[in-house]
Design brief:
The complex is a heterotrimer of chains A (228), B (212) and C (205). Chain B contains 9 helices and no strands. Chain B has helices at 2-21, 24-42, 49-69, 73-76, 80-86, 91-120, 126-151, 159-180, 184-210. Chain C has helices at residues 51-59, 93-103, 109-119, 135-147, 165-178, 191-194; strands spanning 11-22, 25-36, 40-44, 66-71, 78-81, 153-157, 183-187, 200-203. Classes of the chains: A mainly alpha (228), B mainly alpha (212), C alpha/beta (205). At the A-B interface, helix 5 and helix 6 of A face helix 7, helix 8 and helix 9 of B.
Chain lengths: 228, 212, 205
C-alpha cells in the first residue's frame, strides 16, 4: 500500500483533493446551519478558504525564493514561480468570490472597506507585476535572482499592506465596518475547516501538476539542445 | 570606513552626472508643476482642500517614477554596471549611493513643488512636510532597487511603474494620512516603519539584483 | 593561497567541463583548461562561439551552469576588459579613473592614474569627457581602467579592437611588460599578433 502511495503521490493527492472538495460541498449545503444571511452566506466557506490558500501559495513561493538566493538552487526558482502562479489564480478567485459575497452582503459588487478584498487587490497587482518581470528577463540565473528578490518583497508587503489598509480606513470611510469574525458555531467552524483543507489540497495538487509539466518542458528543451 | 567612502564616491558621481547631463531634474520639475496645474482642472469646484492634498501624493509618486526611470540609465549604457559590480566594494554601496542621489533629486523637485502647491491649493503644514520627507526615503530606497531590476530587463521603462506602484501604496497611505487626518503621528510612525523595513530588505538583497 | 602575499603557487584558473546555459540556449559546453600564475591563455573561435561568455565567467560576472570553475584571485585583483568600455560617457577620463581608483582601493591613486593616462597617450585629453573620445581613445581609456589596480589576472575581450597602430603598439608594450607578473586570458579575432606571448590556446567551436 505504501509503495503504491509513494509511486503515485500525485494521483493520491488528486484523489484526496477530490474527496475533500466533495465532502466540503456536502457539508456546506447539507450540514452547516443556514445563517441569517441565508443561502448566500455559503460562499463565505469557499471565499476564506481560497484566500488563506492564496496566502499559503505566496508564502511557499517566498520560501522557495529564499532558497534560490540562499542556496543558489535554480530548481527552487521553478518551484517558486509555480507557487506564485497558483497564488495568483487563487487570489483572482478570492477577488471573484469576495465580490460575490459583497454583492449579497451589502448589495454592490465591490466594497472598499472590506479589508481582505482591498488587500487581495493590491497583492494581485503586485504578483501580476511579478509575471511581467519574469516575461521581460531572459531565462537564467539573473531572472531567478530578480524573481526571488521580488517574491520576498511580496512577503514583506503583506503585513505592511494590512496595516496600511487599516490605517487608510480612517480617512477614506469614517464608517464603522463589521467583519465576519471567527465567532462561528462549532458546526460552522468544522465545515470551514474542511473547506479550507479541500482548497489547500486542491492547490497542492495543481501545484504539483503544473510543476511536473514545467519540469518536463525544461527537460525536453535540454534534450533538444543536447542533440543539436 | 571604506563603505562610506564608496557610497560617497558613488553618490558624488551620480550628482556630477546629472549636473553634466541636466536632463532628469528639469524634467521632474516641469512634470510636477504641469501635474499640479492639471489637478486644478481635475478637481470639481466644491472639492475640499483634502482632495487636493491627496492628489499631491499622486504627483509626488509619478514624479519620482520619472526620476527613477532614469536612475540607472548611465550604467546601462556602456555596460558600466558590470564595472561597478566587479569592484571589490560591497554591491549594496551601489544601491545606497544611487538611492541618495534619487532622494536628492526628489527633494529638489519638492522644494519647487510644495511652494507651488501652497500657492495653487493652500495648506502645506508641518506634518505634511514630515510625511513627505519620510515618504521620500521609502520611495528612494525601494524605487532604486526596482529601477535596477527594471534596468536588467527588456521592458525597462514599461516595467518600473508596474513593479513600483503596489509597493508605493503603503507609502501613499502613510503620506496622505499624515497630511489630512488630525492624528498624523500614527501615519508618520507607519512611514518610519515602512522605511526601516524596506531599507533593510533592499540593502540585503541588492547584491542579488545586480549579480547572476 | 595567501591573499595578502598574493601567492598563487597553484593555478590561477582551473576549469573542468564548464557549461553555460541561458535558459534553453547552451553557449558553452564542456570547456576545460588551466591558467598558471604566469600563464597566457589565448581564446579564439568564430562569432557566437561563446568567447565573451567564457571571459565573463573568468572575470566573475557569471557563474557556470555546470562543471567546475575555480578562479583564485579575488574580485579586486582581476582586471576585465569588455566589448563595452565600462566608463561613464559624461565624465572625464580623470573622473572615471578616479572613481574606479577609489572603488578598487588603488594606492597612490593620483599618481597611478597619471602614469596610466600618460602610457596610453591620453594625458592631454584627461579633462575631456569620454563621449568626446574617438573609438580608439575610448578603448585606451577602457584598458587604463582594466589595468588601474595592477591586477593579478587580466581578462581581456578583444583588446585590440578599435585601436590604431599607435594604440596597438602601446598595448603590445603593456602586455610584454606585465607578462611576468600577471596571468592573462585574452579573446581575440586576430591571434597572430599575440600568439608569441601565449602559453596555451583554447579554440571554441
Amino acid at each position: 500500500m505504501s509503495t503504491w502511495l509513494r509511486n503515485n503521490r500525485l494521483a493520491a493527492l488528486a484523489a484526496l483533493a477530490f474527496a475533500l472538495i466533495t465532502a466540503s460541498i456536502a457539508l456546506i449545503f447539507f450540514y452547516a446551519p443556514v445563517d441569517a444571511d441565508g443561502l448566500n452566506q455559503k460562499i463565505f466557506y469557499f471565499h476564506v478558504g481560497i484566500a488563506l490558500t492564496a496566502y499559503a501559495c505566496f508564502a511557499w513561493g517566498g520560501w522557495k525564493a529564499l532558497r534560490v538566493l540562499w542556496k543558489g538552487d535554480e530548481n527552487a526558482d521553478l518551484e517558486s514561480y509555480v507557487a506564485i502562479h497558483q497564488g495568483v489564480i487563487f487570489g483572482a478567485l478570492t477577488l471573484v468570490t469576495g465580490s460575490i459575497w459583497a454583492r449579497y452582503r451589502w448589495g454592490h459588487w465591490w466594497e472598499w472597506h472590506e479589508d481582505q478584498l482591498v488587500l487581495f487587490l493590491v497583492l494581485f497587482l503586485f504578483y501580476a507585476a511579478y509575471f511581467m518581470l519574469r516575461f521581460s528577463v531572459p531565462a537564467g540565473p539573473r531572472r531567478a535572482n530578480l524573481s526571488a528578490v521580488y517574491a520576498l518583497f511580496g512577503v514583506a508587503l503583506v503585513p505592511v499592506s494590512i496595516l496600511a489598509i487599516r490605517l487608510s480606513e480612517r480617512f477614506i470611510h469614517p464608517v464603522a465596518f463589521d467583519r465576519y469574525g471567527p465567532n462561528m458555531a462549532g458546526s460552522q467552524f468544522f465545515t470551514f475547516c474542511v473547506s479550507w483543507a479541500a482548497m489547500l489540497t486542491l492547490a497542492a495538487t495543481l501545484y504539483n501538476v503544473e510543476l511536473a509539466g514545467k519540469r518536463i518542458d525544461v527537460r525536453l528543451r535540454e534534450l533538444r539542445e543536447a542533440l543539436r | 570606513m571604506m563603505y562610506l567612502a564608496d557610497v560617497g564616491a558613488l553618490a558624488r558621481k551620480d550628482l556630477r552626472l546629472e549636473l553634466r547631463a541636466r536632463d532628469t531634474l528639469p524634467a521632474m520639475l516641469l512634470f510636477v508643476l504641469s501635474t499640479l496645474v492639471v489637478f486644478h482642472f481635475v478637481l470639481p469646484g466644491d472639492s475640499s482642500e483634502l482632495a487636493a492634498k491627496g492628489l499631491l501624493w499622486v504627483a509626488i509618486v509619478f514624479t519620482a517614477l520619472l526620476g527613477l526611470s532614469r536612475a540607472f540609465a548611465a550604467e546601462r549604457e556602456q555596460g558600466v554596471i558590470d564595472g561597478l559590480v566587479l569592484a571589490p566594494s560591497d554591491r549594496s554601496a551601489i544601491w545606497v549611493g544611487k538611492a541618495l542621489s534619487v532622494l536628492a533629486f526628489l527633494v529638489l523637485a519638492e522644494v519647487v513643488a510644495l511652494p507651488a502647491f501652497a500657492l495653487f491649493f493652500g495648506g502645506v503644514d508641518g506634518p505634511m512636510v514630515a510625511g513627505i520627507a519620510l515618504a521620500d526615503v521609502g520611495i528612494a530606497a525601494v524605487g532604486t532597487l526596482l529601477a535596477a531590476m527594471a534596468a536588467a530587463s527588456r521592458a525597462r521603462e514599461l516595467l518600473l511603474p508596474l513593479l513600483f506602484l503596489p509597493l508605493a501604496i503603503p507609502i501613499i497611505v502613510g503620506g496622505v494620512g499624515a497630511s489630512v487626518t488630525s492624528d498624523p503621528g500614527r501615519y508618520l510612525g507607519f512611514l518610519g516603519l515602512y522605511d526601516a523595513l524596506f531599507a533593510i530588505i533592499c540593502w540585503a538583497s541588492f547584491e542579488y539584483v545586480v549579480t547572476e | 593561497m595567501g591573499v595578502a602575499g598574493r601567492d598563487y603557487s597553484g593555478m590561477v584558473i582551473r576549469a573542468r567541463g564548464v557549461e553555460k546555459r541561458y535558459g534553453d540556449k547552451r553557449v558553452l559546453r564542456g570547456v576545460g583548461f588551466d591558467v598558471a600564475r604566469d600563464g597566457f591563455l589565448l581564446v579564439t573561435g568564430p562569432n557566437g562561439s561563446g568567447k565573451t561568455t567564457l571571459l565573463r565567467l573568468c572575470a566573475g560576472l557569471a557563474v557556470p551552469t555546470a562543471g567546475e570553475l575555480e578562479v583564485t584571485p579575488e574580485r579586486g585583483r582581476i582586471g576585465y576588459l569588455a566589448h563595452e568600455s565600462l566608463v561613464y560617457r559624461e565624465l572625464t577620463a580623470l573622473e572615471n579613473l578616479d572613481l574606479y581608483g577609489r572603488l578598487y582601493r588603488v594606492a597612490e591613486r593620483r599618481e597611478r592614474i597619471g602614469m596610466l593616462l600618460e602610457r596610453f597617450g591620453l594625458w592631454d585629453a584627461r579633462h575631456d569627457r569620454a563621449d568626446s573620445y574617438s573609438r580608439g581613445m575610448l578603448q585606451r581609456l577602457a584598458l587604463s581602467r582594466a589595468l588601474l589596480h595592477d591586477p593579478d589576472l587580466l581578462v581581456l575581450d578583444e583588446p585590440y579592437s578599435g585601436l590604431d597602430e599607435e594604440g596597438a603598439s602601446l598595448l603590445d608594450r603593456e602586455l610584454e611588460e606585465r607578462r611576468p607578473s600577471c596571468a592573462f586570458v585574452i579573446a581575440t579575432h586576430d591571434p597572430a599578433r599575440i600568439a608569441p606571448l601565449a602559453t596555451s590556446k583554447l579554440v571554441l567551436a
